[in-house]
Amino acid sequence: MTSPPGRMRRYTALERRMWQALIRWVTRRGPRDGFGYAGPVRPLLWAFVIVSAVETVAVHLILPWLVVRVVVDVLSVYGLLWMLGIVASYRVYPHRLTDDGIRIRHSLFADLTVPRAAIAEVRARRRLLAGSEMLQVEEHAAGRALSIPVSGQTNVEVVLREPTTVDDASGPVTEVRCYADDPEGFLAAAQDQRRQAQQ
Question: How far apart are CA 122 and CA 120, in angstroms?
């Protein structure tokens, strides 16, 4: 179990990443390359943003007490900014193929890099997951798989040469699974990167 200071550091880091994502989104300073993964959740996120905005205005008009109205307005606007920050994070924190390896993200909540030298194969395969956790570790015949699902699904598998420790996996894994809006493009880019590395 995470200690109170550990939880506070985690919340502080989330807060910082949220504001960074929002600023980068508004100023259009997000990366030009990368692969998005927000397709399954984008409509739901925008629905939450719209409902929150309407609710903020409605509550402001309904509350008759000035002090209470101001407090509720501040909290409502802060919550709305958080929602917009999450929307922004899906845009400015895409999956990326770098010289270090494959960097897999999930909004503000997951950020890990699979080392380039550890990758044996990248393949497209859709899987549905039962749990709702942001990171899921599953034992299978070839070892352990770390999944970073979006809306309970993954469609890209990064197979490793040997059990490898990656961030947030709580031990070595033999496979990392994630979701990409364009799995074929992701796969083609990964294969092209491997060919260049072998030249």
Answer: 7
Nearest to 106 by CA among 90, 91, 122, 92: 90
**CA angle, residues 83, 129, 181, in degrees to nearest 5:** 55
In the chain, what are the helix, strand and coil shares in percent, each to the nearest 5?
A: 45, 30, 25
The strand order across the sheet containing 172-178 reads 119-128, 153-165, 172-178, 143-148, 136-140
Coil, strand or helix: which one is 79?
helix
* C-beta atoms surrounding 111 within 10 Å: 15
What tens digit of pLDDT does each residue of 128-157 get?
998 778 889 998 887 899 999 999 999 999
CA-to-CA distance for 109 and 115, rounded, in angstroms? 20
Q: How far apart are the first and last CA of the chain?
A: 47
Tell me the pTM: 0.87
Closest CA to 11 of 2, 22, 1: 2
Q: What span, in angstroms and rounded, lies between the C-alpha atoms of 154 and 183?
A: 10
> What does the alpha-carbon distance between residue 181 and residue 111 come to, in Å, rounded to a whole number?
17
